[in-house]
What we know:
about 210 residues, about 15% strand, 7 helices, single chain, 6 strands, alpha/beta
Amino acid sequence: MKADAINLDGKKAGSVDLDDAIFGLEPRADILHRVVRWQRARAQQGTHKVKTRSETSYSGKKIYRQKGTGGARHGDRNAPIFRKGGVYKGPVPRSHAHDLPKKFRKLGLRHALSAKAAEGALVVLESAELKEPKTAILAKAVKERGWKRVLIIDGEQVNENFARAAANLEGVDVLPSIGANVYDILKRDTLVITKAGVEALEARLK
């Protein structure tokens, strides 16, 4: 599949062949959903914690004798039924991550790229380079292109001047090809990939 490439100023810069096995699939929501859930589960901190009855600050002494009071039998005040007692089976620090096969993760990335191509939200850029790290230069180019929430994927490394210029722009994110992932691609309105990024992604996903 052919796609036109442009320069940062909007001028045409030839064309590029996009692999149909990566950019031409029929997007499947179920595959994308599973990969996004896997990503978000790995990102979840899992640091929530409550005190059990062995960690609360009351005495461990039995509060009154077992028999003869006319009341229910109790041990100490740390029991879950008492106010400020320990919590029974509450959350403890843990990892929320679960396994997802590497082949399936690659398939999800292919479907995410294909989804952007099918929407017409995929732009191929000749290169993402600036001679100096000026935010104003990049901001002007982004405004002229009409990019509001955009993810720019470069090759193996991101040009340092370009990355520094983009760091101050809201709604503009830059990643090397190795950092490309389903969640970040789907949550942006526009996906911009450099020619070097296309080559790197095709090599990664074959």
